[in-house]
Write a structure and sequence with these properties.
Elements lengths: L3 H16 L7 H12 L5 H4 L10 H6 L14 H7 L8 E3 L2 H7 L9 E7 L2 E8 L2 E7 L10 H4 L13 E10 L4 H8 L6 H10 L10 E9 L6 H10 L7 E4 L6 H18 L5 E8 L8 E2 L2 E2 L2 E4 L8 E13 L4 E11 L5 E8 L2 H5 L7 E6 L5 E4 L1 H10 L4 E3 L1
Parallel strand pairs: 1-11, 12-17
Antiparallel strand pairs: 2-7, 2-8, 3-4, 3-5, 5-6, 8-11, 9-10, 12-13, 12-15, 13-14, 15-16
Helix pairs in contact: 1-2
């Protein structure tokens, strides 16, 4: 293993190369590196944000250029960035239980019109039209470092739309049809892992034009149109011929938790039925009235939340331990369990389970060849759960359990 500083530099490069669709670390290698570096103090600014918000690591690309001969830093037209760039990264707070959804959001929304829409697990894109003509598209990014998706998006967006304002910005998620991934892997002999990473590859590198039929975009916002509500905005986008995320208005939020749970479950089922062929990781709930600004707390605004419930709940997994690794950190001893590789719901491969405290090895009788249970509650970390927690899920007949 290289020294810790070099290890951190390679990890930062790995984030960038994954972002542009050319990963050089496997999912498990990236997960392991993330946990190793998390407490090092070398990557603090990176671990708490999405890689979409990373600046392009020009100095590291130059430093390691002899090992990255096929990689070229991506440039972007300054005028396009001026029109589409965002000064502030915005995130949506995620909620994973009905009780938290009620306590932290819905009990304050009685009598308020809400809108519920699918949260696609894709690539965030900003696209610009001038006088009805498509002129360009960029990724999300700050510090002046988004990527130019114009060429790729021009193959799937309408190039001219009548009745648009003179300057119009379309906000969407772009992803590849999950049902076509295996065919794409065989055709191009590439590791197209997820709809999102495959979309990145198609956006930045030319492929056969026919294969762009599998590249989809779903609009979830726009700027430049004078409408009063998000539902009016979505309807207007549909009328102009744009693809829009599945959505519905929810204007009858109950005033008690007992009534709230079945009410929300019915809405989630409806959204799920509308979006079975779209790779997604939750739903977004927002105040429908666009004049309602909400209150900012850091990068979060209380007008909007993301729900990961029912069909989008975090799944629990049962793997088989094949090795145990103990690492002495500055203060504590860190414990990880290696398992036989298994595919998780996000189509990534899990190999490393974080147990953290070695005492868990004894309390759970974890050894080579024994079962180990875990949840994947973020894109980077697999967390061990107890056998008791697993048994409760099994007794419930929970659909969100997966055995190796």
């Amino acid at each position: 293993m290289p020294d810790i500083k070099t290890y951190a530099e390679l990890w930062i490069l790995a984030r960038y190369l994954y972002r542009i669709g050319q990963p050089f670390l496997s999912d498990s290698q990236y997960d392991e590196a993330t946990e190793t570096l998390r407490n090092s103090g070398l990557v603090d600014e990176y671990v708490n944000r999405t890689y979409d918000d990373d600046p392009i690591p020009y100095s590291l690309l130059e430093k390691y250029k002899d090992h990255l001969s096929n990689i070229t830093p991506v440039s972007i037209d300054k005028e396009l960035y001026r029109l589409l760039g965002e000064d502030k990264s915005q995130s949506i707070r995620s909620i994973t239980t009905y009780q938290d959804a009620w306590d932290k959001y819905f009990k304050y929304m009685y009598g308020i019109d809400l809108i519920v829409s699918l949260k696609c697990d894709g690539v965030y894109t900003n696209s610009m039209y001038k006088n009805g003509d498509f002129i360009g598209s960029i990724s999300r990014g700050r510090n002046g470092d988004p990527f130019d998706w114009t060429k790729g998006m021009s193959k799937i967006l309408p190039l001219h739309v009548n009745n648009l304002p003179s300057q119009f910005k379309l906000i969407s998620e772009c992803l590849y049809d999950v049902n076509l991934l295996e065919y794409m892997r065989l055709k191009y002999n590439e590791t197209f892992k997820t709809p999102k990473s495959t979309a990145i590859s198609f956006l930045r590198v030319d492929h056969d034009i026919a294969d762009y039929n599998g590249l989809k975009y779903y609009a979830h916002g726009c700027d430049g149109v004078a409408v009063a509500s998000m539902s009016d905005q979505f309807s207007w986008l549909n009328e102009q011929g744009f693809s829009v995320v599945p959505w519905r208005v929810a204007n009858d939020c109950p005033n008690s938790f007992v009534k709230f749970v079945p009410w929300l479950r019915e809405i989630l089922t409806e959204i799920h039925e509308m979006s079975k062929n779209i790779f997604s990781d939750g739903v977004v709930v927002a105040v429908n009235d666009l004049s309602f600004q909400g209150t900012w707390t850091g990068i979060y605004n209380d007008r909007t939340i993301a729900l990961k419930l029912e069909y989008w709940s975090y799944k629990a997994y049962r793997g088989i331990a094949k090795d145990i690794i103990l690492e002495q950190q500055a203060v504590d001893c860190c414990c990880k369990v290696l398992i036989e590789p298994m595919l998780t719901a996000d189509l990534c491969e899990a190999k490393v389970i974080n147990v953290f405290n070695p005492s868990r090895l004894f309390s759970e009788n974890i050894k080579v060849g024994s079962p180990v249970y875990f949840v994947k509650n973020s894109s980077a970390v697999n967390i061990n759960i107890t056998s008791e927690e697993w048994d409760k899920l099994m007794v419930k007949g929970d659909d969100n359990v997966v055995e190796q």
